[in-house]
Amino acid sequence: MPQTHKARRGRKQRQNDTNTSAGAPVWPGVTGGRFKPLTDSEVAVVAEAVLRLLETLGLSQAIPSMVDRVVARGGHFTEDKRLLFPRDLVLKTIAEARRDIVLCGQDPTHDLDLSGPRVHMSSGGGAPGVFDLEDGHYRDGSLQDLYDAARICDAMENIHHFSRSIVARDIDDNAVMDINTAYACLAGTSKHVSVSVTEPETVHELAALCYSLAGGEAAFRARPFLTVMVCHVVPPMRFAEEACETLEAAILAGFPVQLISAGQAGATSPATIAGSLVQAVAETLAGLVFARLVNPDVRAIFAPKPLVADLRTGSMCGGGGEQAILMAAAAQMGRHYDLPTSSIAGITDAKTLDAQFGSEKCLAVTMAAHAGSNLITQSCGMQASLLGVSLEAYVADNDMLGNILRTLRGVEVTPDNIAEDVIASVCRGEGHYLGQSHTFERMKSDYFYPHIGDRRTPRDWESDGSSTVGDRARDVARQLIAEHFPAHLDDARDAQLRAAFDIRLPRQAMSKSS
Q1: Residue 445: CB partners within 8 Å, gap ≥ 6?
Q2: What distance, in Å, lies between the first and last C-alpha atoms of the chain?
Q3: Could you say which DSSP state residue 381 is in?
Q4: Which helix (H) or strand (E) holds 382?
Q5: Which string of DSSP letters, residue by residue, matches 242-306?
Q6: How does pLDDT run across 277-308, given as a tens digit for each residue?
Q7: Do 195 and 178 form a contact (C-beta atoms < 8 A)?
Q8: In whole angstroms, what is the distance from residue 161 CA to residue 140 CA?
Q9: Closest among 18, 30, 32, 26 to 415, alpha carbons compared
Q10: Given Cys at both, which of 102, 217, 260, 382 links 125, Cβ 3.0 to 4.6 Å?
């Protein structure tokens, strides 16, 4: 069964790609960025088009505080109420934005360094439906499902971050749902958590929840363990007013923020890959300008997440080659700007764990990872074009993510890895490497072994019941739901939270005794 790391490498060790002689074969923050779907000249063309759009077209529906801040620094608010961003301000924003962002876990061993091209895998989605673990049918998601999803991801060593993946449709009030969503995620895992907020008025209460959990406002601001994800635009090139108010409130409260543009090619962004990319980057940078004007020290994540539509129907589709290359190009632009970057990948159109599921997920996540995205959301658990979450898919995807992370390490050509002395010794001796100490030393540090992937012979597999990956993943998910209850939120602190907030998840559902 996959287990949570008892002790992770220190950050300096994690940053050393060639440290393969000891420890695990993969780790959070393996370096990507070698894959570049855009040539240098194409990157320059995209970057210039982005600046032109922001300077000459700008965005509509800017909130008053944004207009005031941007105009005070050389921007222009036109007669047709579009806010124009001068290129000098945009370039200054890019140059001075923070690169040293660490997403803190409640447990510091889960801290994620987003500087450079270090790659981390995350859940995500906000799906309304859940693929039922027992009957194999889709149903509405619940708060319990969200907590269960967080617990499973907590136990998956190749899922480094938990982004809210399920909408708790058993809670009608948006404000109550937002607080309970944050609670269920934070109680279910000690890894860094990201959530969205429905209404700006809820940010104050969310902050109070996090301050209480951290032991005080100063403690949370020093080590914020929850990011607020904000879709600050309604494409094309239009701000979402309430979301911008939420963004401003979240920044002032000390939250890291993820700035998301998610236009849909052919519907809310151009049908071409290049056009969709340029629009998404421009919209995201406009959000970054505003975020830094609110607080120059903001922990802001650049998150252009352009999506693709099936133009035969107009429906979103997340599993094609177009989506994979578009997201890799968006990640490359993040690396061009050297900004902490999040991408979306793994949103298969498949409805269950089948061949379509595996091929679409692996294609998209691999390309985003090799392009150097720091945080790849929706990389696990999602299916049905973001309409459904599968708890067993987290378990199956954990293997996939481990293999993808292993490819990021590359070949690692060093004298020790070439091992000429070992080759000579074997050729003059036994003629094989199986008994060599070098082989024994490297079998764990250099090789990722799947937890549920089956490498047995066909005869052994058949004699053991011919189980599929889905069967084995389902068994592990059931076991984790029954047994894995993170204990980082103790009874006393939980009681304080329940006294202060309308927490709907029963305490008895958070232990084996239930």
Answers
A1: 20, 21, 22, 23, 24, 25
A2: 22
A3: S
A4: strand 382-383
A5: HHHHHHHHHHHTT--EEEEE--EETTTB-SSHHHHHHHHHHHHHHHHHHHHHH-TT--EEEEE--
A6: 999 999 999 999 999 999 999 999 999 999 99
A7: yes
A8: 24
A9: 18
A10: 382
Q: Which fold has domain 11-34+96-109+118-407?
A: TIM Barrel (3.20.20)
| Residue owning tokens 């990389």 | 379
Query: CB-hemisphere CA count at 13 Å for 60?
Result: 8
Which sequence spans correspond to the domains of the chain? 11-34+96-109+118-407, 419-445
Per-residue pLDDT, 37? 98
Treating both helix axes as pointing N-terminal to C-terminal, what angle do 391-409 and 469-483 enclose, rounded to 10 degrees?
A: 110
Given a contact cutoff of 8 angstroms between Cβ atoms, the answer to whether 112 and 161 are in contact is yes
Q: Which residue in 481, 447, 363, 148 sits closest to 379, CA to CA?
A: 363
Give yes or no for a contact between 209 and 252, defined as CB atoms under 8 angstroms apart. Answer: no
Q: What is the pTM of this model?
A: 0.94
- Calpha distance 194→489 (Å, rounded): 18
The alpha carbons of the chain give a radius of gyration, in whole angstroms, of 23
User: Is residue 397 exposed (0-12), middle (13-18) or buried (19+ Cβ within 10 Å)?
Assistant: buried
Retrieve residue 512's tokens.
């084996």
CA separation, residue 62 to residues 66, 289, 382 (Å): 6, 12, 33
Q: Quick check: 217 and 169 in contact, CB under 8 A? A: no
Q: At what angle do helices 273-294 and 241-252 cross, to 10 degrees?
A: 50
> How is residue 16 written in tokens?
């050393």
Determine the pLDDT at residue 221.
98
∠ at Cα 158 (156, 159), nearest 5°?
70
pLDDT at 513: 66
CA–CA distance, 123 with 103 (Å, rounded to integer): 15
Q: Look at residue 15 and tell me whether its pLDDT is greater than 70.
A: no
Positive or negative CA dihedral for 159, 161, 165, 170? positive
- Tens digit of pLDDT for each residue in 160-189? 999 999 999 999 999 999 999 999 999 999
Instruction: Report H helices in 381-490.
Output: 391-409, 415-418, 420-428, 437-445, 458-463, 469-483
* 3-class secondary-structure state, position 25: coil
- Per-residue pLDDT band for 315 (boundaries 50, 70, 90) equals confident
pLDDT in tens, 386-406: 999 999 999 999 999 999 999
Phi and psi angles of residue 83, each rounded to the nearest 5 degrees, phi first: -95, 120
